[in-house]
Amino acid sequence: MLVSNIDLGPTILDIAGYDLNKTQMDGMSLLPILKGASNFTWRSDVLVEYQGEGRNVTDPTCPSLSPGVSQCFPDCVCEDAYNNTYACVRTLSSLWNLQYCEFDDQEVFVEVYNMTADPDQITNIAKSIDPELLGKMNYRLMMLQSCSGPSCRTPGVFDPGYRFDLRLMFSNHGSIRTRRFSKHPL
């Protein structure tokens, strides 16, 4: 089952007996899992995001390296994080075990990995899978990036209870949301 740090708060409140329907937390309580329950609904996907830490300056301790590196060690071993900002949706369902990622770069680079066949994420299958599947994964990524509270717990695109509802993307107090990594509004 896909769990995340966003599930810790709801779990603690659930253990304390607090009504989770009164919260605006994105996560879900792990208490049913911890109690060994078998007949409950759980998410099929989770959002993973990383914000690159590089800056457009050269590290003074390593002047021979180009701008954009961060966390340099004494021997100029650095993390190239300047162009490594991404958002992913990790999906685990009875039929699918995928990771779909979009990078915040000039081309909005997309990576898709079949985590069953390729757990080390060596072969990017984004150009060889069904475009409809890519569209579903892109839609779910946008939904998870723009959700808040209970709306983050809606069924994923591979859940039997899933239904496409564009209004869900625009339900945040009437404001129109845009994809974080898109150059064009929705």
Automatic annotation (TrEMBL):
Identify one Pfam family in the record.
SGSH_C
- Every N-sulphoglucosamine sulphohydrolase C-terminal domain range: 2-50
Q: Kindly list the GO molecular function terms attached to this UniProt entry.
A: glycosaminoglycan binding; N-acetylglucosamine-6-sulfatase activity
Family membership, please give it.
Answer: Belongs to the sulfatase family.
Full protein name:
N-sulphoglucosamine sulphohydrolase C-terminal domain-containing protein
